[in-house]
Amino acid sequence: MKGxxxxxxxxxxxxxxxxxxRSNPGRFRVVALAAGDNTELLKExxxxxxxxxxxxxxxxxxxxLGKILKAPVGAGVEGAEEAARCKGADVVISAISGAAGLLPxxxxxxxxxxxxxANKETLVLAGALxxxxxxxxxxxxxxxxxxxxxxxxxxxGHRKEDLKRVVLTxxxxxxxxxxxxxxxxxxxxxxxxxxxxxxxxxxxxxSATLMNxxxxxxxxxxxxxxxxxxxxxxxxxxxxVHSMAEYVDGSIISQMSVPDMKGPIAYALSLPExxxxxxxPLELSGLRLDFMEPDxxxxxxxxxxxxxxxxxxxxxxxxxxxxxxAVAMFLNGRIPFTGIYRVISEVMGAFSPxxxxxxxxxxxxxxxxxxxxxxxxxLS
Length: 380
Ligand code: MG
Known about the structure:
This protein is of the alpha/beta class.
């Protein structure tokens, strides 16, 4: 049985991973679960899956849960790191949302675990350093993000020298067909309504601005060792083609399936084997596939991400931090939807990227950008 640790077990990816594990008895064993504030759900998960170790974000919640479970419960970043290093874990699912996922994922890499990577921020913030650590510790990184899983599968069995570019697909989010001038007035509730995928709040807003795709371009650059110029984005509203690899002979290899995160999660846990029955089959008759160029007037955040990737060093970390702050401001009703781009753009305009030597350089850029984002709130 494969031992699985899940960082972010109460989030959207964590819950889907547990569904995959639940419906495949005898194949996986849950050895560690780390969650944030949802102690109630974590308790249920712990009682059902009986992991060796669990962790929550707060110390008091950890003490309370420890009494109920009659076992030591970890807390905070240290607790999540301990879950990541858990002895019985063959694979660690990294699914804590946002920059908070970086340190626990690094802990898993340094423990030489296979990483099923759903937390894209790990590579956005410190891609070169993280990939180098993974090489040094023999930790395999398997993408869970549906686009990167699709590229990973489209590259398998082909020669890297023959690859022309990879093409990431984007659904375009809920505002794809809205006139640009109406974007000022969209509400958080409208922006959270993703047409194809059911996801957490932060990533749903990032999908509406296309910043999610921008972060995925940066993630792909590190995962597959490609410059931004060889990573394209195409709008594909049906979300059936999950991404593609184009080769020098004009052939395009893609991975298609119904949009359901359980697919890439199951593949990351079981590859090279494939598990049946995890997702519904894709109905081919009547299937229509549309592709179009993204409109950068509609989605200016995408261009910011390409610029940050080009600038390199700590620029992507600052971009991510500014975005996290701006999205929180929008969700709190403090800035309009279009203010997200304005906040990030202003922060990045004033930010001087530095080379990344240690993780501290990344954390410092993150702090600076968050402070800068907080001080441009007057923009609203
Ligand atoms: Mg994705």
